[in-house]
Amino acid sequence: MDIKDYLEQKRIEVDRFLDAVAPRADTPPTTLHESMRYSLMAGGKRVRPILAIAAAESVCAATPPGIMAVACSLELIHTYSLIHDDLPSMDNDDFRRGKPTNHKVYGEAMAILAGDALLTMAFDWCSRPDLMKGCEPQRQVRLIQELAYGSGNVGMVGGQVFDIQAENKDIDLPTLQNIHKHKTGMLIRAAVRMGAIAAGATDRQLDDLTGYAEDIGLAFQIADDVLNVTGTREELGKNPNTDAERGKKTYPAFYGVEGARKLADDCVTRAIARLASFGPSADPLRKLAWYITARKN
């Protein structure tokens, strides 16, 4: 299979669902919904929802009930986190995905509220009877709990706190690893686990896929750190070298660019080995792992 074709097909499906189910821009309050859609539909690779879909496919050939709502709830969380990350009180970024950041267009207050609304809407989608029709109630509760755990105080938000507290400090490698295990890794972990749970994974399958997710979560962050050093604004859709400007220690600071790339490749090799018990149905996950380190943005 061609991973680029797979990613493009799934991205189109995810974008179609997001566009159809998210409130229209002319829905009152219109400014809020314009702001939400501005960031949500601004493009992006849709890696997290695609990971959820691919994890489900690795477990079961049949499409699980509610899988698109589950997958796209992750994109809502991710988009809200980007809007809030870009705020002046956080990373103070001017550009995201090649466009002015949300607060530059709609103001800080509306950007905060748009992020709040996207976060809340993620849980709405996972609990809506029409979007989750056919999903067993017990499984649905597990999915909602995974989303909360991966995105909340012991997940992504906790990692953001660790990240802020580490700025302009001479942190050690274990501290850096802990930051990114939470800030980036936990939502990726949630994506893979949610797809697997939606598809009815066994305990063994879920354990193997969790290990895979943790390895590629680290690889994803290392690749991001390398791109921040080596990428151009055109490739990244935002200004490069922002980590160093903010006094953030990154993997290239510890290992050098080539050493960091080697570490990311080692993570991918380990991740793929976790899928040894899966057949060809897990090929998208295997190829996604390598795509994560080879990407340019």
Automatic annotation (TrEMBL):
> What molecular function terms (GO) are annotated for this protein?
(2E,6E)-farnesyl diphosphate synthase activity; dimethylallyltranstransferase activity; geranylgeranyl diphosphate synthase activity; metal ion binding
Q: Kind of enzyme, top EC level?
A: transferase
Keyword NAD recorded: no
Organism of origin is: Nitrospira moscoviensis
Name of the featured protein: Geranylgeranyl pyrophosphate synthase, chloroplastic
Among the GO biological process terms of this entry, one is:
terpenoid biosynthetic process
Q: Which lineage ranks, top first, belong to the organism behind this chain?
A: Bacteria, Pseudomonadati, Nitrospirota, Nitrospiria, Nitrospirales
User: Keywords assigned by UniProt?
Assistant: Isoprene biosynthesis, Magnesium, Metal-binding, Transferase
The EC number(s) attached to this protein equal 2.5.1.-, 2.5.1.1, 2.5.1.10, 2.5.1.29
Do you know which PANTHER family this protein is assigned to? FARNESYL DIPHOSPHATE SYNTHASE (PTHR43281:SF1)
